[in-house]
Amino acid sequence: MLPYSTLQQAEATVGRELTFAEKLWFNYSANIPDYIINVHGFIFLLLVYSLIPLPYVLAELSKSKEMNKYKIQPKVKRPFSDIFSCYKNVMQIFLLGGPMLIITYSNMKLIGIRTNLPLPSKWEMFWQILVYFVVEDYINYWIHRWLHTKWGYEKIHHVHHEYTAPIAYAAPYAHWAENLILGTPTFLGPVFIPGHIVTFMLWLALRQIQSLESHSGYDFSWNPIKYIPFYGGAEFHDYHHYVGCHSQSNFAPVFTYCDYLYGTNKGYLYHKSLLHKRDDWKPHQEDGD
Ligand SMILES: [Zn+2]
Ligand SMILES: [Zn+2]
Fold it and tell me: Rounded to the nearest whole angstrom, what is the distance from the C-alpha of residue 250 to the centroid of ligand 1?
């Protein structure tokens, strides 16, 4: 809840006229407790998870050969029942995690994530979210490598690898311990550099969208996300799932530089160099039979 009851008081405190976005934020948040903002954020993330994969679902269910050109493993097509079952499983886990909101709320207070005015500038949000991405990517690279040890894989990580040809909804499909372990570094960036709750929610949404895209099973050549420097993407992560248990390639969740630096992209590069000769894993293969 904001410590001002009128727009005039808010502008007097900020020391200038509020921007359009700040007025919207004032109208939304002035009279609701912070934990309700948190609940709304949770619903927003559920909507992101539910809606973003829909174009990929339509592509998967379509019989279009044109669309199949973009399928990374075109021989594997999933029926609606499989896709819905995956969505249902993940949503059950999300909804069971609802009561965790109270804990998240106290943690956010502890970290110093603020809800008041002024809103952060675009550049402040950009740099903070970039740091959050880099911190999380680096730490989860190493955790993911540990999850591919014999113990880590057999006890925890094998669940996520049930999908050797992933679909977008399978991005968070994993053992509860994996979601907990890999989810923790998501909050480390905000712990080191706490910002506004708008930045925090945008970070969680963008990270989720990125994860859904990299599990989508489709590599659209015109996707603007592909032009982000050092971005891994769907083809990069799909290969990791394709190899499965014995994968020693492509551990980083977002960028490619960790795998390059630590030499864990060699298998992937080798397979890419052989793609034109192979039939069992060939991106953009036109014949999906
Ligand atoms: Zn893995
Ligand atoms: Zn994955």
Answer: 8
